Amino acid sequence: MKKAYVTILCLALSLISFAQTSDVSIFVADTETNQPLPGATVYFEELEKGAITNFDGIATFTEIPNGNQAVKISYVGFRTIETTIEVGTKKEFFFKLESGRNELDEVVIQSSRSTRTVRKIPTRIEFIGVEELGEKAVMNPTNISMVLRESTGIQMQQTSLSSGNTNIRIQGLDGRYTQLLRDGFPLYGGFSSGLSILQIPPLDLQQFEIIKGSSSTLYGGGAIAGLINMVSKTPDEEPSLDFMLTQTQALGSTANVFYSVRNEKFGVSLYGSGHYQKAYDPEDDGFSNLPKTTSLSFNPKFFYYPSDKTTFWIGLNGTYDDRIGGDITKIESGENGIHQYTEENLSKRLSSQTVYEKQMDSVSSLNIKNSISFFDRKLSIPDFSFDGKQTNTFTEINYQKASKKADWIIGANLYTSNFDENDNATLQRDQRDVTYGTFVNNIYDISDNWILETGLRADYNTDFGFFPLPRVSLLYKNDSGFSSRIGGGLGYKIPDIFTEEAENINFENVLAIDKAALKAERSYGVNFDVNYQARLFDAVSFSINQLFYVSAINNGLLLNSTDDGFFTFENATDKIISKGAETNIKFTYKDFRWFLNYALIDTKLNYLAGNPQKPLTAKHNVGSVLMYESDKWRIGYETFYIGKQFLSTGTETTDFVTMGFVAMRNFKWGTTFLNFENFTDRRQSRFSPLVLPPHDSPEFPEIYAPTDGFIFSVGVIIKPFGNEDED
């Protein structure tokens, strides 16, 4: 009997031991710098549990069975580790990943055209990853404006109350000076201008890459203020399916769906989005602050992998967007008495992208790409309409080679733009531009601490001539967490009629570009920044980035009135100079992150008497974002201060503060969320009127503050194949 008890006791202890679990923390760092790697993937294959490392490079797991467990640790641009850990012997495990920058299929930052990680590129690049994009998609699932608005030094400038048209300003410079790319293709801008931001939904995007300052050497004309490259999600062997449904109290409904999967030879990603917004008038003044909108988007992509070294893919992007704002009565019931004013934008976009990528050997690759973009837009107000079509094409071939100390890229491209105004228009403002370009770029490791990047582009436009565009950047880094970059380059912009000033007056009575009389805009710019990151205590990490910049534009394109009531484009007689500083500070403590930022934007119009500050540009901007992130919860609280601005009349506006709150709860099947955007209801109508009489032909003052006020939204993301963020 005694032996039986002993046997039963041993079996019980064995079962208890077998059933025991432990909490595990896995720290992932860079072998060369010993710095943590946020965003690395840690996956227990047999348990089918995965997590992403936080800003301290730590991934945490609960209830991992004791014993040997196979774990896979990966990070884009680094060699993957597959190993076994013995859970139960300790709770913390430390791994270092080696850089895989010579493996050309592991591209980290596409906009740099380099295979290096962001820490080893002399050009200053701001990176927004998939986790933060997911949070911003919850806040605004219809377009990317939320992602960009909260980046330091970037302003989303609304140009129309009735349509909601919005332009992006980097460091105080107009939207036409920022180049918008998707997967390296220049698909947006020109005639679409202020509608571009509003027609790019965020759910199928994997990351954002932002380069501030002149980037024309990398991607040609138009990137005087900088460029923003949106990188799409690509299919993986594990299928992905997301349904996202959102409803706002402002009568807006949005549905998004994304699906992707691949096998050895083929892959596919499918994205669709639909948005409906009723005309919304929070002031009850009879005019809409959000236009009535019906928007549909689709984006299928098909991938072919003939070998491990070759990828071919083709994608289509289509958008139908109809937005009408203005007099609520006319929108809902039709024209009646004094209810006559509306502004309608009906637009259709169709574009194709084709890419061939071939890894020639272990250190070199060949890339060929082409896109064709077609945009059809009709803008209508009472007694006037602006109607036209724009077709853009982009073709490029480039060759890349990476050695132990140097990375090279050499290439050539062709860009064409053709705007065709409706033949019935009184003013015919058709314009066709053709630009040929060649470029070469080199990144050279002078030593372990110093890296130099140099580049040269030569563009030739058939109407405006030759543009040599050199650039240079230098990076210093050490193992103590300190790094610094300095760089600069030249830029240019070919004149066209699609400026903020022309759009503000709906292009009415705006004369065509006179190529014989106008010069191309030219620029130069310099950036200098320092970075430092360290651990203040065992559980608290700290990082700071301080940027200083200056950009100058010669021959700025101005829209001036004529004696006979028309508007004509002229070159400015002196410079536009934008200088300032940006400060970004981050604290992390366990599951908490606190971001602080400050932007000083001092943009002066030297061609005007007294060198005044650029209108609608706040000189001082401050932001604070506090986030809590765990496997189950993401909770954020944000505060933004926008300083005083000047209107075109010289009138000084009031400053204001906006606040927001978002909460997300992860489940195995998906995520639910609540978002309180601008819950203090700061809007311009509280400071000054948005609409001036007469009612039947109103005037709209310049917009310097939010117009829609408080927006509450609730939604759900359904993941039929499971939520990777939930253990």
List keywords for this structure.
727 residues, mainly beta, 7 helices, 7% helix, disordered N terminus
Q: Give the radius of gyration.
A: 27 Å
The computed structural class is mainly beta
Largest sheet: 23 strands, antiparallel
Number of strands: 38
Oligomer kind: single chain
Percentage of residues in strands: over 45%
Keywords: Cell outer membrane, Membrane, Receptor, Signal, TonB box, Transmembrane, Transmembrane beta strand, Transport
Family: Belongs to the TonB-dependent receptor family.
Domain TonB-dependent receptor plug: 118-226
InterPro entries: Beta-barrel_TonB, Beta-barrel_TonB_sf, CarboxyPept-like_regulatory, Plug_dom, Plug_dom_sf, TonB-dep_rcpt-like
Describe what you observe in this structure.
It contains 7 helices and 38 strands. With 727 residues, the chain is mostly beta strands. It has a 23-stranded antiparallel sheet that branches. A 4-stranded antiparallel sheet has the order 3-2-5-6, with no helix packed on it. The two termini are 45 Å apart. 43% of the residues are buried. Mean pLDDT is 89; it is low at 1-19 and 101-107.
Secondary-structure map:
Layout (H helix, E strand, L loop, with lengths): L1 H18 L1 E10 L10 E4 L4 E4 L5 E8 L1 E8 L6 E7 L4 E6 L28 E3 L1 H10 L5 H5 L4 E5 L7 E5 L7 E5 L10 H4 L8 E8 L3 H4 L6 E7 L7 E9 L3 E11 L3 E12 L14 E7 L2 E7 L2 E17 L1 H6 L8 E18 L4 E18 L2 E19 L3 E16 L9 E15 L4 E12 L3 E13 L4 E12 L6 H5 L16 E15 L4 E15 L2 E5 L5 E5 L4 E14 L2 E14 L14 E10 L3 E10 L13 E12 L2 E8 L33 E8 L9
Parallel strand pairs: 1-7, 11-13
Antiparallel strand pairs: 1-4, 2-3, 2-5, 5-6, 8-12, 9-10, 12-13, 14-15, 14-38, 15-16, 16-17, 16-18, 17-19, 18-19, 19-20, 20-21, 21-22, 22-23, 23-24, 24-25, 25-26, 26-27, 27-28, 28-29, 29-32, 30-31, 32-33, 33-34, 34-35, 35-36, 36-37, 37-38
